[in-house]
Amino acid sequence: MSNPWTHGNPLPFYGHSSLHYYGHIAGGDHEGDSLLIDSGPKMRIEPNCMFTGNQGVVDMDIVLHERDGSTVVVTQNAHSCPDSFQTTEQTESIEFRITSVEVVAWGIYLKTDDSGDGSLVGDAPDIIWAPGELDQWWQVLTLGPPSFQGNLGPGDFVDVFAFNITEENGSYVRVDTIGDSAVSYRLLTLNQETGDVENSTDGSMMIVPTGTHALVIEIGDTNQTVEYHFSLPYNGPYEPDGGEYLDLSYRAKDFYIFAGIFLLSPLLLVIWWNRGAIFSGAPLASDIEEHERRRLRRLRERLAEALAEEIVNENEVEYALRQMGDSPWRAVVQDWGEPLLRHMTEQIEICVWRISEGDATLLLGIRVADEPWELAAMRVHAPEGAKVGIAAVSPSHLFQGDEIFLDKMPADSKMFLSLTLEGSPSSLGFQLSGLVGDQPLAAVPSRVLDWSD
Q1: 181 and 325 both lie in a single domain
Q2: pLDDT digits (tens, 9 = 90+) for 141-152
Q3: pLDDT over 60 (residue 288)
Q4: More confident call, 163 vs 262
Q5: Membrane-crossing residues (predicted)?
Q6: 187 vs 141, 153, 272, CA distance in Å?
């Protein structure tokens, strides 16, 4: 190998260590060998160097390569490696330059106790990139289930990561912290031309427009190393309210008349098929039979009565909810009336009713389409006003804070849950997330439920 290094990119550094690298210098090789190993900022490196031959026949330089193209000499004309050394805030790689007056074999191995921030080697940058200068120094985080870890401590009080939004109207973004940590989070939306901060939150939900934006993790002055662990869940795209429209229907009046006559012509065939129901009062095949309506009405009354008791009979509540789950979805919707909130997509339908006026208990109905959901969870949040929490769920499911864990939801299945809420929010929002076809998916109703009534 040439000395200095001329072989392209540095050799990799994995997690807490590099690979073991070996070589030899032949007699008469006055140029010697060099070895360039990937590194990062603010790392305490412990090199392990091995040489054959007599003591002192090896001369070695250790040089840090900096981001701006400059170099920093750690040691020069040394006969062995130091016990440890510290990289700078700008270090990209470490070069070992070895010469010998005799034939010698060498081996070099690096290790560190400093785990990198995220998937980076070394410390994450302390500053936000300038417009057009985002490079491999900043990790671009992925929205979704993956989680990320890092640490802050003495001399390292700020870590900056990037994340990218591709939806045309932007996305809902929040930080989901895992475990307890003394660090604080800031989500920053950046002007894509100037780099100026246009909006920010403390990690709570915000609408982030298309482009590349920043997550800043901070801690106050401390002499202790503090770890952090978080994820950026995918919360679905932002859907803005429709704008104002002009009525230009008069321009196509003749077409509307023709289309109306053409599309209504099958009505004669429908009337013929259902002539018995129309002219003699016989029930239509699609009508819900009377006994089914009576059954659903009684289930609704039993559910309301059970929840109104001072001591709730959980068996009675679960029985009513499971019986509703065995009934046709359309029949339940007709019996309970217009939902307070309804969200329909190709994969899922969500309906929310209030079980009794003035009560903090909701009926939540979920109908799954032809693809099953895995690792499903429903989150109830308060976009405005006081925080909301979940006090009770029937039938019994795991829940914590404002989130219910639904686990598997088979294809073409129905589920009805009774949710008792705590807190005094002015509005409620719902978000269903999970895996559909091994891909993360979120169902977020485009409007919130007014809870101040």
Answers
A1: no
A2: 989 888 999 999
A3: no
A4: 163
A5: 255-273
A6: 13, 21, 63
Q: For residue 49, tell me if it sits in a domain.
A: yes
Locate 320 and state its tokens.
């009513």
Residue 49 tokens read as: 């160097």
pLDDT-based confidence at residue 308 (cuts at 50, 70, 90): low
Task: Identify the pLDDT of residue 280.
Answer: 58
Domain carrying residue 261 = 249-280
d(CA 129, CA 88): 19
Sign for the pseudo-dihedral over CA of 424, 429, 434, 440? negative
What angle in degrees, to the nearest 10, is found between the helix axes of 314-325 and 290-308? 150
* Same domain for 439 and 396: yes
Q: Does residue 308 sit in the same domain as residue 430?
A: yes
What's the alpha-carbon Rg for the chain, to the nearest Å? Answer: 33
Q: Which residue reads 């009934």 in tokens?
A: 327
Whether 42 and 104 have beta carbons less than 8 Å apart is answered as no
Are residues 179 and 102 part of one domain?
no
**Alpha carbon 311 to its chain's center:** 39
Residue 211 clears pLDDT 90, i.e. is over it: yes
Note whether 355 and 271 are same-domain residues: no
Task: Please indicate, yes or no, whether residues 304 and 374 belong to a single structural domain of this protein.
Answer: yes
The answer to whether residues 364 and 264 belong to one domain is no
427-436 and 439-443 as β-strands: parallel, antiparallel, unpaired?
Answer: antiparallel
48 and 175 inside one domain: no
Assessment of whether the complete model's pTM goes beyond 0.85: no
pLDDT tops 70 at residue 2: no
Q: Does 237 reside within a domain?
A: no
Query: 259-263 long-range contacts, Cβ below 8 Å, gap at least 24?
Result: none
Which CATH number goes with the domain that contains 148?
2.60.120.380
CA 182/CA 221 separation, integer angstroms: 11
Q: How many domains does the chain have?
A: 4
Is residue 385 in some structural domain?
A: yes
CA atoms within 13 A on the CB side of 14: 4
Taking only the tens place, the pLDDT of each residue in 265-284 is 788 777 777 666 666 555 55
